[in-house]
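Notebook entry, structure prediction.
Reason for the run: the old model in the group folder had no record of what sequence produced it. Starting over properly, with the input documented here first.
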Amino acid sequence: MKPAFFLFLFAAQIVFAQKNTSQVLDNEVSAVVEKYIAENKIPGAVVAIKKGNKVLLKKAFGYAKLKEFDGSVSEHPETMRVNHLFDIASLTKVIGTTTAIMKLHDEGKLNVDDPASKYVKGLDEGDKAQITLRHLLTHTSGMYEWYPLYYFSQQRATTYAFIKQLPLKYPVGEGRHYSDLGFTILGEIIEKVSGKPLDVYVKTDIFAPLKMTKTTFKPDKKANLIAATSMGNPYEKRMVEDPSLGFVVKDLDPKSWNGWRQYVLQGEVNDGNAWYANEGISGAAGLFSTVDDLQKLVDMLKNKGKVKGKSFISEKTVTLFLTQDNFKNGLGWMMDPINSFMKNGPTGTFGHTGFTGTSITVVPEKKLSVIILINRQNMGLQATKDYFNPNPIRDAIFKAAMK
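New structure, fully documented this time:
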């Protein structure tokens, strides 16, 4: 036989092996997601798994909208598609805010070790003067984790001012306390440094160059397919009213504000502070995106800041943000392998989750990424008065991808 024939045979075997691997992965992931859909735990999901330049799996499951505001099943459930926009919730913190700070740092327009007070007013007194951008990015600023800001403000500018006048809840730098408020202030810093509103800056300087054409705050509801989330804000209302959750504000009458939405959210950010107190645009939450758009930003980070061979952000800056700190996390990104969505991942693995059910995991060592978008809130609250926890799904899919 001629050498060319053996080369052809070898190439054919590789193609067959790749197809077989993708099929096994598809079967495993589908079994996991379809099980939870059948058990009425989630309405639907979109999953994308990519290794190197090869998409191993990209698939939609179930429904984008299944339940109506009263909890009944819709007469015409909306089938999920891979191009549905999702409210990515706290993935906003990494996809939008962290990337923006990363880019501004790379351009020398700010430095992550600078005091936050260098860029915004209101953080230059007492212990607050110690807060750096790094503290905000690593959730070690000492700010409150969450606060019902909409009881005190309905506009971004006044919300920024209100957050900064709150006392610190913890000592600066002494512990990691995941804070929406800290990332809200990072949004203000981006606006001050860039000279553009947050939504405009991320669109023109990050999403447009990366060709993330669908990623946006406050999407056009008529022009896009958008997965539904919650029936108003029932869990957040509980956060204000139920002391057992640990968020109740002393001397605040929960009935003193009653702007709660009374409909299924589809194209409006679920996060109450983002919607009610930040005009739908926040450094902590508010972005909507598709799995394809998210993949573009993930690929940039996997390629150490390069897009098609050209530097979008320098490798030095990417490395700075994706190096573990004392709390085993990076700047913005989570890196602690104790997290279910990257359980026991190798050194350098990073990712993040979103309250609506979204998550991203990246394993640079294997050039692997796993993006899971779940619209869990459209099932409504469980009997326990909280939403189904999708961690078992994330864990199972990550394990399947790692195999």
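Summary: Residues 113 and 274 are 27 Å apart (CA to CA).
The old model has been moved to the deprecated folder.
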